[in-house]
Amino acid sequence: MTTLLGKIDEIVPNLFRLEQDDETRIISQYILLVGKKILVIDAGLPSSAEFALIPTLKKLADHGSEISLLITHPDADHFGGTAMLKEAFPDLTVIAHIEDCPPLGSLVSTIERRYEPFKLSDEIELSSQAHVRINSRMGSDFEVSKKLSSDLVFAESPFGVNILHIPGHSAGHLGVWIPDSKIFISGDGVMGLGIRNRDGSFLYPPQFISPTIYRSSIEKLQKLKIELLLCSHEQPLRGNSVDSFLEESLESIDDLSYRTEMAIGNESSTLLKICANVHASYDSFPKNREADFALSIQGILMVMESQGTLTVDSLSFPRSFRRK
Ligand SMILES: [Zn+2]
Prior knowledge:
CATH class of the largest domain: Alpha Beta
Largest sheet: 7 strands, mixed
Strand content: 15-25%
Mean pLDDT: 95
Bound molecules: zinc ion
């Protein structure tokens, strides 16, 4: 089936997957019907809400349906349609993890904490062109009505739906686990070898706040024995493909950690310089995008500092890093 924008598939009974193009890649959102409850997973971009989610929800919702929106994490391609959804469904309950609130809800805070977290410490800033692009993707401010601080049972058996905290890509990243059918909706909680374009090439490297936190979330997913994994920027993954994707996600942490250690060099270095060296060591990621590595590399550097193998001078601007 098609929507006004992109397509919609009922991939198992009562679970709908909406997919749209986002420039060179895909983005997807999910609608899960659980009795009178409707759980929407991610709001997509403003255009996803306007042309895909809202018209679909208007068809699916009855009078008396309780609609909740779960925002997996604070990136524009996942929350940008929220304000528009709230306008269309004023009783909408907006759910997110407390560790992502803020930035979630405030666009100013999202720019500061999510898109330019290294501006004041490492002189890594967005171009004015990138600011314009991001502003057009975030919609308007909104309120998060339910801030989770632990896992949550959203619906009891026989429908059984659990909301799980899988930190890594963000501190409060959430995913949805349907135990009866062994389906996990992961947002960007697990990223394989990177986020891919439609043609299979890479758009972004895996981005995580800490390699140890990200690793333990992936290991938590491995224990679930997932049969159908639904990532935001991948086609649905089934059976053995789930296992390989989770394995690749773990390998990508080791690979990036190794390249980061190699890239530091013997002199003191800045975060941007280390990112540039790591970026140059791959030939798979887009040119001139070294800052895309900053979040994960800073996480790796913080682990090295805690292990005593790296000195960080946080008083210099930009910060400098030196191997011990
Ligand atoms: Zn995303």
